[in-house]
Each structure stands twice: as structure tokens, then as C-alpha cells.
Specification:
1 helix; 10 strands; 62% strand; single chain; 197 residues
Length: 197
Amino acid sequence: MRKFLIILAVTLMATPAFAITGLSIGVRGGWVNNYDQAGLSLGDYKADQMNLFGAQIRFSSLPMVNLILFGDYAWKKNEYDFGGQTFEFKMQDFSFGASLVYPIKLKVVSPYFGGGISSHNLSYDYVKPLSLSLDDEGINIPGSMTRLGYHLSGGVNITLPAFPIGFSAEYRWNWIDTPGEVTDYTSLILGLNYNLP
């Protein structure tokens, strides 16, 4: 966590002060897929997908690259049946971070690629009948934790001439430094952005 904050502070200090030109603010949503955490097991069931919602700020006035600051909330709540007994489970991931991306600037559709770092606050909640044994059903729920993550990404920005609203689509490969084995997953994120003049 401390390393992440130091790197983020250095990145922000490298941003020109009051760099309002080339700034866009937006909301985003999407899906987390193929979530694979070694310490999480729900017996014969899988918990490999989550919904995602967040916000982002993009600085495109930097030389060569764009800086994207983001905050996301990913979650999944579901009920599972174990021998006629209902097991309620919810997992959440509050994350914030920064990406540096290299844009290929075109008139309307501009592809980009890059990577970045993030901090993840992972939490897991469940409700079970007293008679349901987690060990017998092969259920293992980790404790809450805050861990450092990193990602690679590729996407496109769509801007319409003389119109301040733009769209973005991004595919991301993510890793979180969880105890034991690294947690990995992919995400698809769609954004709606307001571009300042």
C-alpha cells in the first residue's frame, strides 16, 4: 500500500500543474471475468465473475502518454445450494489506481495500450445455516485484505468532433498480489466521458 501511494504521488507531481486542457471526467461500468483466487473455494461452484462500476479522470496533455486515475467497485452476490441448504455469499473489491497509456491519436477512434498499478480492498461475506459444514463442502472463504495490484490494458477512445461527450472501451489483464498465489482475472470496461475544452 505504501509503495502504491509513493508511486502515485510521484506520477501526480510529474503532471503539469493546473493542466486543465486535455482533461476528461467519466463514469464506467463492466464485468470482471475468470476471477481466480487460490484461497477462495465454493465447493463445486465457481465465483469467477463480478459486476463493475466506477469513475475515471484522464489527463491527455502529458507528452507521449495519457494518465488515467480511476476508482472501481466490483461485486458479486449469489446463493448456492448445498444439499438443500442455502449458502449466501458476497464478494467485493474496492480499488483505486493509475494507468499510463500510449494513445494512437486519430480523428474519431483512437486506440491505446498501457498498464498501471492499483490498490485493492477485498472483502468476503457469507451467511450459512448452523448445520452446514464449510470443510465438508469444500468451502474456503479468505479474510478481508488490502493488496497491491497491477494490470496491462488495451482499448479505444471515441470522440465526436465539436461534441464534448466521448466513449471508451477497455480490455484489461489484472493481477493482485494475494497471499500464496497471485490472483488473476480479466475485465471489460465501458466508459462515458465528458471532455473539457
